[in-house]
Write a structure and sequence with these properties.
Blueprint lengths: L8 H4 L16 H36 E3 L2 H9 L3 E7 L2 E6 L4 E5 L6 H7 L3 E5 L5 H27 L13 E2 L16 H15 L1 H6 L7 E5 L6 H12 L3 E5 L10 H15 L3 E6 L2 H4 L11 H15 L7 E7 L17 E4 L5 H11 L11 H6 L6 H17 L7 H13 L10 H20 L6 E5 L9 E4 L10 H22 L7 H16 L23 H28 L1 H14 L1 E3 H9 L2
Parallel strand pairs: 1-4, 2-5, 7-10, 7-11, 8-9, 9-10
Antiparallel strand pairs: 2-3, 3-4, 6-8, 12-13, 12-14
The structure holds adenosine-5'-diphosphate (ADP), magnesium ion and zinc ion (ZN).
């Protein structure tokens, strides 16, 4: 979804600059084929002429002229063996009394003229060398020029119309073509906005800060999971301050060749300084700013050099250079500590997943211009979307609008919004996915197994929907969401989650006496939770100890302790599976009835599930 341009005040103060010339993709045959061919032919002809001249000249001179050190030539002058001398620049060409030619090179500023004159040699000083040699040099320059032009052409055509040398930063100037984003377009992150307000003030009126002797902000690190609006809010800072916005991704600096990334960093900063005040946005800075490991030898040279260059550039910033670097990451823990020191990215702004009020605010930003059924409230929608990021919410409303448009509706209704929620969670339905009756039964039992165990274990999130339709990567899904935002999760709730997740496999086991690969996601999920319960949350007999991996992902513990951790993890999962089996055996008749119903209708919601589960 695009935000319509609110105003164009940021294009007002920025002259259109031809930074990265946009060449049309469709290039004429003339420039594409004819000119390069002509240039190549010309180049070859010139090169041949030049080569012939240079070779013949050097052969001629090798025969006639003797190369001597300058001291020898001076000695000869002293012994009156020289007739005349021609000096041009540092080249000394002497003719002996026998007619023999000598050549020597003097040092810069060495006053040989007087010595020769003193020795009675006639000295002829010329400003530049003449003759074949000079001609050869001119040819060479010409050839080089032609080769240079050819090189540019070849690069242009091979880079899809862009004539960028290798070391140019790939930073894109953003807000020249894109609509301006303002703080009002970013919702639900009030604290972050407040923190960034100061950056805006600084970019607008740097004098106010420098007059107070304040060290001006240089780097801001935005920390938040994907889709929380890091890019958006950075653009909003540029929009509010009405300054140019350069965007580049950390991974673009990391190239195959050592030194290229560093050159790009240099180029980026040069460009930024030329266009100050401005904002440079480095997305995914963890790609280049990872902790430098002291173990590996070489290997990471390129990234390290690039990172060093970045640090150097940030340190070298003139105090008054009005450039603010905003970097984004969702892995602040892996960043090199050097990046976070004062004067670098010393400000951190956190962007959390929005809470219910935040979600409502974000929804209302993105609901603008979308006719939503007035009976529905965004508050309700916000309640149903716990855990959604800003990007998910934007996506949700867009999907709903697309669905409504496809159905030719006047308003976006409840059905479209609910379908859109599922789409965001798991992807679109795959109706064309051919599933045999037998497989469909397994999927239905599996999903109903999840739903019943969740419904029957206290501490589970309420079940909202069960489907046996393939969607995205999943063959069926059971949607449950907490009634409100949760920041603390009890141990009992985690155990309930584990049991619910094992409910699918337990149902397969009970009904079909065999299990399928369909539970692999569930197993992945429970393993993750169980491991965190043991290693991070202190929720196992191993005690309240954190067993954390270091930056390289190695758990620095003894093999014995590792196997005890594994045993505790397995125990948690085994118990969860046992719980699921027990619950489903008790409710086996309901499991069968609901699953058979689901095979017919493909989707049932939480209310219907309750009705069938608890009906007398
Ligand atoms: P990130 O860079 O953190 O991954 P983006 O800034 O690219 O996230 O967000 C993607 C899209 O999601 C934005 O273009 C916007 O439409 C929407 N979005 C994310 N967060 C918000 C927010 N707080 N308010 C409004 N829209 C948001
Ligand atoms: Mg982003
Ligand atoms: Zn499952």
């Amino acid at each position: 979804m695009e935000i319509p341009p609110k105003n164009n005040r940021d294009t007002k103060n920025s002259r259109p600059r031809n930074l990265l010339p946009k060449l049309s993709r469709k290039r004429s045959i003339l420039t594409r084929y004819v000119i390069p061919v002509v240039l190549v032919v010309l180049g070859i002809i010139l090169l041949t002429i030049a080569a012939v001249r240079v070779i013949s000249f050097s052969m001629r001179s090798a025969a006639a002229v003797q190369e001597r050190p300058i001291s020898d030539v001076l000695n000869m002058a002293d012994h009156h063996q020289l007739k005349s001398v021609t000096i041009s620049g540092n080249d000394v060409n002497a003719t002996g009394t026998t007619g023999q030619q000598y050549h020597a090179v003097k040092e810069d500023g060495q006053p040989v003229t007087e010595i020769f004159r003193h020795d009675g040699v006639s000295v002829n000083v010329v400003n530049s060398q003449q003759g074949a040699w000079e001609q050869g040099a001119i040819d060479l320059v010409l050839v080089l020029a032609v080769l240079g032009v050819m090189f540019v052409f070849i690069r242009r055509s091979s880079m899809g119309g862009r004539s960028m040398p290798f070391s140019r930063s790939k930073a894109r100037r953003f807000n020249e073509s894109c609509p301006t984003v303002l703080f009002q377009d970013v919702a639900g992150v009030e604290e972050a906005k407040m923190e960034l307000e100061e950056i805006v003030e600084f970019l607008k009126q740097p004098e106010r800060f420098t007059a107070m002797g304040a060290r001006t902000p240089k780097g801001v690190l935005l920390v938040g999971s994907p889709g929380t609006g890091k890019t958006l809010i950075s653009r909003a800072v540029a929009g509010e301050a009405a300054v140019p916005f350069y965007s580049v991704s950390g991974s673009e600096f990391v190239e195959m060749f050592v030194g290229v990334g560093a050159a790009r960093v240099r180029d980026l900063f040069k460009e930024a300084k030329d266009h100050a005040p401005c904002i440079v946005f480095i997305d995914e800075i963890d790609a280049l700013g990872r902790q430098r490991s002291n173990s590996g030898t070489g290997g990471n040279d390129e990234r390290e050099q690039t990172l060093n260059q970045l640090l150097v550039e940030m340190d070298g910033f003139d105090k008054n250079a009005n450039v603010v670097i905003i970097a984004a990451t969702n892995r602040p823990d892996v960043l090199d500590s050097a990046l976070l020191r004062p004067g670098r990215f010393d400000r951190r702004v956190m962007l959390d997943k929005p809470d219910i009020r935040g979600r409502e605010a974000i929804l209302s930003v993105h609901a603008q211009g979308k006719p939503i059924d007035p009976d529905l409230t965004l508050t309700d929608l916000a309640r149903q979307t716990a855990g959604f990021s800003g990007a998910d919410l934007a996506n949700l409303l867009n999907e709903a609008a697309l669905l409504a448009a496809r159905k030719d509706l006047k308003l976006i209704g409840k059905i479209e919004l609910e379908e859109a929620i599922l789409r965001v969670l798991a992807g679109p339905e795959r109706k064309s996915h051919l599933i045999t009756e037998a497989e469909k039964a397994i999927i239905a039992y599996h999903e109903v197994g999840h739903a019943i165990v969740m419904r029957m274990t206290p501490g589970s999130d309420p079940v909202q929907k069960v489907t046996a339709i393939a969607r995205g990567m999943a063959l069926g899904i059971t949607v449950s969401a907490p009634a409100e935002d949760r920041y603390l999760v009890r141990r009992s709730e985690l155990l309930a989650k584990l049991a619910g997740a094992m409910g699918g496999r337990a149902a397969e086991e009970i009904i079909f006496g065999d299990v399928t690969t369909g539970a692999s996601q569930d197993i992945d999920y429970v393993t993750g939770i169980a491991r965190r319960m043991v290693c991070e949350f202190g929720m196992s007999p191993l005690g309240n100890v954190a067993y954390k991996a270091d930056a390289e992902g190695n758990l620095m513990i003894s093999a014995e302790l590792a196997s005890r951790i594994d045993a505790e993890v397995s125990l948690l999962i085994d118990n969860a599976y046992a719980t699921a089996l027990r619950v489903l055996r008790e409710k086996q008749d309901r499991l069968e009835a609901i699953a058979e119903h689901l095979i017919q209708v493909e989707t049932i919601d939480g209310v219907e599930l309750d009705k069938m589960l608890f009906a007398a």
